[in-house]
Amino acid sequence: MDQLLRAAGQWPFWCSLILPLLVFYLFQINRLLSGTPDTVRRLSPARWTKEMLFETYKRLEKRPITIDTYVDQLPPKLDRRYIVTGGSGLVGGHIVLQLLARGQHPASIRIVDFQKPHRHDMLDGPASDVDFVQTDISSSESTDRAFSKAWHPSVAHLPLTVFHTAAIITPSDRSKLVYGFCEAVNVRGTQHVVSAARRSGADILVSTTSGSISIRPVEYWVQPWKLWSSWPRNFFQILDETDFFEPLRPHEDFYANYPVSKAVAERIVCEANTADFRTGCIRPANGVYGNPTDNTVGSALQSATMFPQWTDHIVQSFVHGANAAIAHLLFEAVLTSPDSSSRPQAGRPFTVTDPNPPITYGDLYYALSLLAITGFRTLRLPPMLLLLPSYIVEWYTLLLARFKVARVLLPSAKGDIQHLKPALFSITTHLVATNAAASRPVEQGGLGYRGVLTSMDGMVQEVVEWNREHMDSSKPRKTYRTSVSFADDIQRLSSAATSVGALQLRD
């Protein structure tokens, strides 16, 4: 008893010693997470200025970028039929529009998606005449029905290309406990698409995977004795395809469930490559944008309040949906010859990004604050102020996932807070993608890829279109469903259906 009393009496002393050290340690980690290594600075040396942005805005306001402005840079039209899974979305929608722009008849294109096209650029003109089949690719029966639907007699005899862009994006879930949601659509869905494509006689399949596959988890908690001599491990990463040529990494070596599922799906597609069924994958760089429905520019523009962020110093590569779509068409052109299955391009992925050095999130935020007529302001928060609570949010969501009684008694996390988990900080660190392999000439094993839009042109063009839609200040700010919010909706519907089914079984 005396020993316990003496230990209790020493407790204030140890707290007074340890607490300042802990605060000092957290302060130093925050300093590192707020920094930019010199290597990264050299890769992105120039910042966007007011003069550059105003000049770009005025130019694009007078002559907006449309498919017609770069149609001559698309691969030539091919006499084929097309199924585009996820054709209502960002990259898939651009593929559909580019196919039409280069002369493809609407009757030869079919969109296979869970949701109808809702992008404003697909609601009229030739795109509105493209066939749409609502499909849940996580169901083999639903996928088979979409692929086996009869074609118009004028195109039924043509060879078939499948562009598989459909996916579910959950940016910050990393636990195997909740992996099933991504796996159902991104892995089993890809298996269903590959099988249905083969049964339908397709001889080319190009799939959209993700540059995030190569991202490894950032190790934020630097050893105390290394705080002044090193950055957090993986704080800066190059995104390329080298990991594809190595054994698949274990689950915990990916930053989240989403890239795990995309890596597995990528290998399913690439391993399916044969002389009769040529395949390959495009890995768009980490941030894909190009429509108000995107998670990068559109999501920020829709923010009606001050936009919280901790990433203005972060350097990343981005890719416009139009650039990613062109890469798919270039890949298809390479695979049209039956002997292409043995070429170095077939059965492998290629990473693509915009044709410019990487930018910072600060460049993007500055452009939005300067140019958006709806107003845009950011609230700069210390990374540590968000990193620490992210562990609590993750613990809470996993508690709900693990225990049914918790789901009954406790509310689920909703809105942006549900994505504030540690994995989110791995995808918001310095990530620079390279086009080196994709940009090589076809005869040298590449795709001959050259993007048609720089990040500045693409992002400013999106603001020009946003401003045009919001000229009437008396009308409310428009909202669009992004791929992340769409995944949230699907997950809630799935959980609700499961709960209802459980109640019915109990009754």
UniProtKB/TrEMBL annotation:
GO BP, one annotated term: steroid biosynthetic process
Name of a matching Pfam family: 3Beta_HSD
The UniProt record lists the keyword Oxidoreductase: yes
Alphabetically ordered keywords of this record: Membrane, Oxidoreductase, Transmembrane, Transmembrane helix
Keyword Membrane: yes
Spans traversing the lipid bilayer: 7-27
Molecular function GO labels: oxidoreductase activity, acting on the CH-OH group of donors, NAD or NADP as acceptor
Span of domain 3-beta hydroxysteroid dehydrogenase/isomerase: 83-211, 251-368
InterPro entries xrefs: 3Beta_OHSteriod_DH/Estase, Lipid_A_modif_metabolic_enz, NAD(P)-bd_dom_sf
Family assignment from sequence similarity: Belongs to the 3-beta-HSD family.
Protein name (database record): NAD(P)-binding protein
Species, as recorded: Coniochaeta ligniaria NRRL 30616
Upper lineage: Eukaryota, Fungi, Dikarya, Ascomycota, Pezizomycotina
